Amino acid sequence: MFGLGFGEILLIAVVALVVLGPERLPKVARSAGLWVGRIQNFINNVKTELSEQTGVAEFRQARDSIEAAARSFELDVNNNVRSIRGEVDALKRQIATDEAAETETKMNLFEPLHYSGTNLSDAPLVHRVSLHRQAIQRRRDMRPRHRITPKLRIRRHG
What are the Cα distances from residue 49, in Å, to 8, 44, 63, 98, 131? Predict the structure, then answer.
């Protein structure tokens, strides 16, 4: 205790016995023990607070590192979302241009021959159907699919 050896403590006790006398020595020893206990208690409290403060500092460091990791993760996610949206937009544009090209191709296929300005031999086979066949097809299309036949009901009275 306090860096004192047994011999030094014994020397202090002998000096105290000589200076204070045998009547006052127990009271002084009791109060000295009380003060030493309080000082040890105070030192322990200070050590505890220092360790708590160190723990709080470590907690703050851990919290800061977690927040930094969360920010970098959020940044990565946002960058990935932006790149995916860009790719989706590019695909939408490509699909729209493909559909427009396909529609234009279909329009060219079904365009009447006199509007297209092409020769009859260059026209696709769809437009080569003769007028007679076209008239037959129109008549077929105009006919009702089912013939309406009246059904007669016979009532029997018994």
Answer: 33, 9, 20, 72, 105
pLDDT in tens, the chain (158 residues): 567 888 898 898 889 888 888 888 888 889 989 999 999 999 999 999 988 888 888 888 999 999 999 999 999 999 999 999 999 999 999 999 988 888 877 777 666 555 555 555 565 555 567 888 888 888 888 887 777 777 777 777 76
For residues 12 and 20, is the Cβ–Cβ distance under 8 A?
no
**What are the structure tokens assigned to 47, written together?**
């050590």
pTM, full prediction: 0.37
Q: 3-state DSSP call for residue 95?
A: helix
